[in-house]
Specification:
The structure is a single chain. This protein is α/β, with parallel strands linked by helices and 341 residues long. It has a single domain, classed as D-Maltodextrin-Binding Protein, domain 2. Helix content is 50%, strand content 20%. Strands 1, 2, 3, 4, 5, 6, 7, 8 and 9 form a 9-stranded mixed β-sheet that branches. α5 packs across α15 and α6 packs antiparallel against α15. The longest helix is centred in the last third of the chain and has 35 residues. The protein is globular, with a radius of gyration of 25 Å.
Length: 341
Amino acid sequence: MKTKGAFISSWVAVLFLVLGISVLFSYTESAAQPIELKLGFVTAASAGDPYFITSKKFGELVEGYTKGKYKVKLFPSGQLGNESEMIKNLTMGSMDLGVITNAPTGAFVKSFMVFDLPFIFPNEQVAHKVLDGEAGKMVLAKLDKLQIVGLAISEGGFRHMINNVRPVNTPEDTKGIKFRVMTTPIYIALFQSLGSNAVPLPWGEVFTAMQQKVVDGLEIPLSVIYANKFYEVAKYLSLTNHTYSPLILMCSEQRWKKFSSEEKEIFKRSAHEATVYERNEAKGINEDILKKLKAAGMVINEVSNKKPFQDAVRPMYKQFEEEIGKDVLQAVLNASDVASK
């Protein structure tokens, strides 16, 4: 009997051991599954699109640096809402990450309006120095009020005017043209200062509005013109370089708090490296895009004398000083002056 009892006990022990190993294996296998993070942006997932380039590179870096613990899933073309909706989603924590245009961000945090002031940056190199420096960090930190963490600032590029009426060489050439603008005060004021008609429209409605002649034109970076096929609905492209377009890489504070200190550093590092990568890519892409847009039939003109435009819009700086914050405006202007030397 003792032998039989010992035999049964041994089998019970073996059974529990097998079950324990199975449970452990199952747990380990489950733990190895990556944590999926949602990242949204409104433009198309096109190889030349700055939002997509930034998002894709950021995701690759995060996955690599965390050894697969996190997987960044991309939701392009406004799948998670328009940009205002995505900012609200980030605040509520219903999405994790976003690459958001600066102007809609400025509607929530007025300090960001400073980057949308026309002709505040003379070129990309100055913009990069300011945005990566103390002035840029000062503005990014103000996202805290939305319970959002600003990780880095990527490049949408300088914005240009496209339309179906005439080439734009002087402010007078914009008169009578209905330009779609983002639904923000600075962009509306910019075109009003030039004497044209500003028509605020959400991004998702713009292509159809051009097709149906609800608007005559709009202003966007070269990469966005090409990636979203605006050459199909607009004839004239005028290289005005009137406004530099920063793209804000954001993280929901609710998600941010779940990261360890080491992971937070990884996400910051990935964001910075992704923006540097995208800026470098943009140089060659823009040159190539101009050739493709010309081949697609767009009539392209350089704007050699920007001073009349600058004179027309300069009063806007004072107009928006209080909303932006005098300290923020002065910090950015000073940083731009230093970087220009």
